[in-house]
Specification:
- The chain is an alpha/beta fold.
- Helix content is 49%, strand content 8%.
- Strands 2-1-3-4 form a 4-stranded parallel β-sheet, sandwiched between helices. A 4-stranded parallel β-sheet has the order 6-5-7-8.
- It is globular.
- The termini are far apart.
Length: 350
């Protein structure tokens, strides 16, 4: 795709106001000058008609979608940046982290190397639980906790053993052909299992499957609230605890702000759990968009700000309904609140 085509599709109407850049969490929380911001990416292409001018900056976007949210011209800036990455994609030019991601996909059909973790599988059912790469291969408690909560609510579901990465991580780095291959593979898996409903604990998986697969996929919070009903979840009187709640970008902005209302109600249903208000709860933690694997130092700057806010709020634990966010937030080695995924935390209290 040429730069001319890219501009005609994605950047028409840009008034160069800079609102996207002034609201960008990477620009705000990273060291000065590391990332010039979304306006630079759009403006460089318009001025130079050359994609090469953005190569050093395009992968410093965390795909938090804040820029699209605040754009007065309603430009889909995140989609434009993905298109830039598609247009400039050369595997040999990728960072070591992004090369490793592609290598894992080609070898295992997973974004991370499989750990050998094999939780219990369930019989064929109308509901298919898609655990996602991080929740299944790195944060085991996410998959097992979700299955425990669904079983507790008497939901009959299947967790297939032959699923592949949804394709979102590779699509975010511009490897669209690989993402398309994963989509077609998973479509066959879904058809084979015959499930009418697909649910996942990962917001990135839920939004990507919903948008790219021509099937409806639900985040587990949506399914628990809208289809199961929170009254079916019987929480026990566990220890008293103060928690802060992080709003994952792909959940809050891509799926919808209402999901965090569901998260709030889920917490309110748990005895002895007190939610404390954290500053900038909806600001990106740095875990998405390929930022953590491609520029871990920059992701760490956003992570440090999020951890600091949770600590200042007096939280004993920081919760996030997103495995990618949890993976990133747990990398901080300071004297900070513990970090847990929200659904696995809920499962520990039934």
């Amino acid at each position: 795709m040429s730069a001319k085509t890219w501009r005609a599709i994605d950047a028409e109407g840009c008034i160069e106001c800079g609102t996207c850049t002034s609201n960008c969490p990477v620009v705000i929380n990273a060291s000065s000058g590391i990332f010039p911001g979304p306006k630079y990416l759009l403006g460089s292409l318009r001025a130079n008609n050359e994609l090469k001018f953005v190569r050093d900056a395009e992968y410093l976007c965390s795909m938090c979608m804040k820029c699209g949210e605040v754009c007065p011209s309603k430009i889909k800036v995140p989609r434009a940046i993905i298109n830039i990455r598609n247009s400039t994609f050369e595997e040999s030019e990728l960072t070591a982290g992004h090369k490793g991601l592609l290598r894992n996909i080609k070898m295992y059909r997973r974004a991370v190397e499989p750990s050998g973790h094999h939780p219990q599988k369930f019989k064929k059912a109308d509901v298919l639980y898609f655990p996602g790469c991080i929740g299944s291969e790195r944060l085991y408690e996410v998959e097992t906790g979700t299955e425990k909560l669904l079983t507790h609510a008497s939901v009959k579901f299947v967790t297939p053993a032959d699923w592949a990465c949804c394709g979102s991580p590779v699509a975010k780095i511009g490897a669209q052909e690989t993402a398309d291959e994963l989509r077609e593979y998973n479509r066959k898996v879904f058809r084979k299992h015959g499930a009418e409903t697909i649910i996942t604990t990962c917001p990135g998986c839920a939004s990507h499957i919903d948008e790219e697969y021509d099937v409806e996929a639900y985040h587990i919070l949506e399914y628990l609230y809208e289809s199961v009903g929170l009254k079916k979840l019987k929480f026990k009187n566990r220890e008293k605890i103060k928690v802060a709640l992080h709003y994952p970008c792909h959940l809050y902005r891509s799926i919808g702000p209402y999901t965090m209302e569901y998260a709030e109600e889920l917490l309110a249903a748990m005895p002895n759990v007190k939610k404390v208000e954290m500053e900038d709860a909806d600001v990106c933690c740095g875990g998405g968009g390929g930022l953590l694997s491609g520029a871990p130092d920059v992701a760490g700057m956003l992570r440090a700000e999020k951890i600091r806010n949770a600590k200042d709020a007096g939280a004993d634990k920081l919760l996030a309904p997103c495995p990618f966010c949890v993976l990133n937030l747990r990398m901080d080695d300071g004297d900070n609140p513990n970090v847990d995924e929200l659904i696995s935390f809920a499962a520990s209290r039934v």
